[in-house]
Structures are given as structure tokens and as C-alpha cells.
Design a protein that fits this description.
It contains five helices and 34 strands. By secondary structure, the chain is mainly beta. It has a 31-stranded mixed β-sheet that branches. Strands 8-9-13 form a three-stranded mixed β-sheet. Strand 22, helix 5 and strand 23 (297-316) form a beta-alpha-beta unit.
Length: 460
Amino acid sequence: MKHNEIRIKFLLMFIGMGIVFMSFGFNNEKEKSSSTPEQIIQRIQLPAIPDKDYNLLDFGAIADGEFDCKPAIDSAIIEIAQNGGGRLVIPEGDFLVNGPIHLKSHIDLHLEEGSKVYFSQNPKHYLPMQLVRWEGVEVYNYSPYIYAINETDIAITGQGTFIGQGEGGIAEWRSKQKPDQNRLRDMGKKLVPVKERLFGEGHYLRMSFIQLMHCTNIRISDITIEDVPFWVVHPTYCKSITINNIKVNSTRINNDGVDLDSSEDALIEDCTFNAGDDAIAIKSGRDNDAWKINRPSKNIVIRNCLAKNVLHGIAFGSEMSGGVENIYVNNLIMKNVKAYAIQFKSNLDRGGYIKNVYFDGVYIDNTKTAIYFTNDYHSYRGGNSPSDLHHITIENLICKTARGRSIDIVGLKDNPINNIELKNILILNEDKVSQVVNTEQTIYDNITIGEKEINNTIWP
């Protein structure tokens, strides 16, 4: 694609305020993975939910925003599960839930338009502890707000809104979490038995909002999620996942929109993010704990998503010790990114790999750095296990303004980043000169940064 064609695409998107998406498509002739986007999508199964509705009001719920509807939800889920599944309908109104919602197989938690579900901020309501993965390490912690483990055919759908009420509550634990965070990381590094990693009452590890563990055939569609303490949508060890048309409006620190964690065969599409951290992050666990589990995140398609206001756009890592592979990103628009728009991050402790990642069609309005790679992210303890980052393609990208380096790729001298292809990239303005350091077998084709054109295998 010539630059004048790219500029036309840029103008269309800019005039359309993020509504017009590019339609470049992936070049299948260059794919190195065994699963194409089409093959991945064909494998994904939507959940099988019986065509029977159960209204939450029939189980004693009151939609006044003050009555505790958790007992009604628990009773409804038990009855629906006993009857083989169905749709639990939460109608228009305000519903308070003092504690988590634990989903079962073949159930669709459905919020009708105008329904709002508010969650308690009393930590005691989220006991007993449940098995989760927290920042890449397995642990028994307070229950996530919406949780399931070892279930199949689960849906969370509808036009309603979940409200975490994080302000002044569990979100404030971040300032207290460091001792627990370090203790858990030590346990993971030393492979302390998971049953001994107990971090409930008296500890301060914030919970993910939706965390589904070891589940298959998942659909999360159309809902809005607001004001949660930590990661927002967090499938872990899951397979066959569809996340489409959700809206995340939660701008606290560590509010990642979607974290796919050691999960596979996933489609994320038509989603909108106002998030305090990454809009989307691909992860697979941290250090020794993840090496033992050895489960990558793989075969993921992300398309037609909009990040309106985020800290980072899309991130790979830093908890990626189980590996990340076969990721396809198409038609991604980012309006205001405070730091890194496309970010690959690891360090000398992580091990693992990131490979076979393909971007085709990215527009960035305003960011610090458009493309960022590092194998030296944050502090590390041993420094003997650098990650392998290779076979990554980014093409058809437009960035209007980079407040720092538009491209910042820094590998390790003894472990270079390799087989990176940057193609058809237009950066209109950058404040600092881009850099590419310690890479091998890189391809730069049709790149313009300001008035400089780059078409070399050696970065200038």
C-alpha cells in the first residue's frame, strides 16, 4: 500500500471519529502459524443455553438498590442448574448484590436494558476464598465478583450495567498490597503448594471483576462494566471464548479491560474501552509458577475494537512465562493512549516466548509510544531467564502524534528480538527520535516518520 492510500485511510478514520474501521485483512501467504484467523473463529463454540427464562424478581429480588439480592441470585442459579440450564434475566431496575455471583454450566446471566447491578465493597461478603490466578500466580483469595470454575457453556449478556463501586472500597487496597504481592510472588517462585497460599481475610490482593477458571464455551456480550477495583474481564485457563460489544468504563490503576490468561481459541471484537491500564492484555502466568503449569495463551483474534482513553492500548505480558502465540489483531483504533499503544514486555526472569503475532490495520490518534518492545521490564530477581520475542508483524499502522519515540524496540545484546517486520507505517509526528536496538532479521518496508522514509534492514 502506498503512502497516499494510507493517508486517505487516515483521513477517513479521523473524520469518522473512530467509527470508520480499516479493512486490510491478513496476508495468509505470510502466516507462519498453523491456525489462521478463520480457523480459530470456526473452532470457537458459543455456549449451549436452553431456551428458558427465569426472572430474578420471581426469586425474591427487589429492584430498589438497597435490598440484598444475592440470596435470590444464588437460589435462581441453583434452580436453573438443577433444571439443566437457562437464562437468568435481571430486569430493569437497581439491584444490590452483597457478594459474588458464582455461575454454573448452561446459564446465561442476562441484564435487560435499564438494569444496573451494584456490588458490595465489604470484603467479608467475598468469602470463602476461591482458587484464582493473581498477577500470574495461583492463590486462594477473596472471590472475584463474578466467578466460575470447571464449568462449561456460560454466558453473561444483555444491555445492562455492572457497577463495582470501587471508590473508597476494595480499590483502595492497592496502597496496602505490596507485602502480600511480594509474599505471593515468593511462593510462586519457590513452588509452595497452592493449598498453602491463603490470602483471604487480613490480606489485600484486589479481585478481578469477572474471572472464569478452567471453563469452556464462554460468551460475554453487550454489557457495560463500570468502576471496578482491579482487572475487569479475566478468563483464565479457558477455551472457546467470545467477547463482543462490551463497554468497559473503569479508569482506576490496574483496570485492564480484558486479560486473556493462559487461554485459547478466543475472539474479542467490537469492544470499547475507557480503562485505567491496558485495554487488552495477553498473559500466561509469572515465572516458576507458570513454567510448571506450562499453558500458553494462543489462537486469539482481536478485531474492530476501540480504545478511547487508556494507559496502554494492547499489551503482551509482562506475565507471559507460559508463552503467547498465534495472535491476530485487525482494525484497532486508539484515541488517547497515555503511554504505550502496542506493547511487548518481559524481563530476565520471565522465560517463555511471544511469537507469531500479526497486526494489520491500526490507527492511533495520540500516544507516548506507538510500538514498544522490551525484554527488561521492571525489576527482576535472578535474571537468568530472558524471554524469546520473535516473528511479529505490524503493518498498515497510522499514528498521528507520538509524544515520545513513536517506535522504541530494545532487545538484549545476548538475546536479540528477531524476525520483526514493520510494514506500511506512517507516523505524522514524534517528539523523540525512534530507536531499534539489539534485533536480528528485521524487515522495515515503507515506513515514514515525519518526513523521513525508512526502507532498510538496518535502522538508521
